[in-house]
């Protein structure tokens, strides 16, 4: 791998520190007890990072998301790790009945609300629901959607650049698909993943410990697309998916530390 590609990540790291370091120091001076709460500290830092990066990252993935989300998302849509809620801008209001933005970083909720409201989804008419639990908390998700036991409520589950961050992604995604996604429902994802090129993967592993400090646990070394493809239903003998399609990002160089895969996976209907 060219060294210029391997070290290009330093620009992003420097930019993230520039955007979030001073506000975080000010916040610590204001509430020193934050130092005793590493999760809250990391979320505060990430909230400032995402103000600097969110729009650019959305712009960068716009073509893939238009192709992935707009023609496919329907019914009740659960967006895990919604960030500022950029996904809502790709939803077709004629086909989507409710946008459920799950985002444990509550400092991002006001952004979600304003982007969703501008796109026509509001809490007042129940077309918008913002959840502050983690994606692993399927019990809270189901109770927030008032779902009767054994009746998964979600038609479309979306993960945009989130499987890189959530703890135990294989267990969490399997639980979400099993318990929260309806039979015949779909998972749409767009993620940066572990590269199949050994030298790129080596650099992704080298940078992950530093990167995850700045980006609230985000890892560069997860083969999330493979985990999703290999997901198995119930007793673990059959594939979870009746239909699956995974593709890359047009024009993306192979020597990219942020190598993306997008996919549409349809759960078996019973
Ligand atoms: C890189 S951002 C992506 C945001 C958004 N999906 C987008 O594409 O603009 C990852 C998001 O995952 C959220 N996150 C972190 N831990 C999570 C968890 N356990 N469950 C769900 N989301 C989580 C972070 O707060 C962050 O907003």
UniProtKB/TrEMBL annotation:
Molecular-function GO terms, alphabetical: methyltransferase activity
Q: Name one Pfam family in it.
A: Methyltransf_23
TM spans, by residue? none
Family annotation (Gene3D superfamilies): Vaccinia Virus protein VP39 (3.40.50.150)
**Which InterPro entries does the UniProt record give?**
SAM-dependent_MTases_sf (IPR029063), Thiol_S-MT (IPR052356)
Q: Alphabetically, which GO biological process terms does the record hold?
A: methylation
Which PANTHER family does this entry report, sorted A to Z? METHYLTRANSFERASE LIKE 7A, METHYLTRANSFERASE LIKE 7B
In Swiss-Prot or TrEMBL terms, this protein is called: Methyltransferase-like protein 7B
Name of the coding gene: Mettl7b
């Amino acid at each position: 791998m060219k060294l210029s590609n391997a070290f290009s990540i330093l620009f992003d790291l420097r930019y993230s520190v520039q955007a979030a370091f001073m506000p975080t120091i000010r916040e610590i001076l204001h509430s020193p007890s934050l130092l005793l709460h590493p999760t809250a500290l990391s979320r505060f830092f990430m909230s400032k990072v995402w103000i600097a990066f969110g729009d650019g990252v959305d712009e960068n993935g716009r073509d893939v998301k238009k192709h992935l989300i707009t023609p496919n998302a329907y019914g009740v849509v659960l967006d895990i790790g919604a960030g500022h809620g950029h996904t809502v801008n790709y939803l077709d209001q004629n086909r989507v009945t409710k946008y459920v933005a799950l985002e444990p970083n509550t400092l991002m909720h006001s952004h979600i609300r304003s982007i969703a409201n501008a796109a026509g989804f509001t809490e007042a008419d129940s077309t918008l629901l913002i959840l502050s639990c983690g994606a692993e908390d399927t019990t809270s998700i189901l109770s927030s959607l008032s779902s009767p036991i054994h009746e998964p409520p979600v038609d479309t589950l979306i993960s945009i650049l989130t499987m890189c961050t959530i703890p135990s992604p294989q267990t969490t995604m399997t639980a979400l698909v099993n318990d929260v996604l309806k039979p015949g429902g779909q998972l749409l994802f767009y993620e940066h993943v572990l590269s199949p090129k050994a030298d790129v993967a080596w650099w992704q592993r080298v940078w992950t410990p530093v990167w995850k400090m700045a980006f609230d646990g985000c890892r560069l070394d997860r083969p999330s697309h493979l985990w999703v493809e290999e997901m198995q239903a119930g007793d673990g003998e059959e594939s979870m998916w009746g239909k699956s399609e995974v593709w890359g990002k047009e024009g993306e160089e192979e020597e990219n530390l942020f190598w993306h895969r997008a996919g549409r996976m349809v759960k078996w209907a019973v």
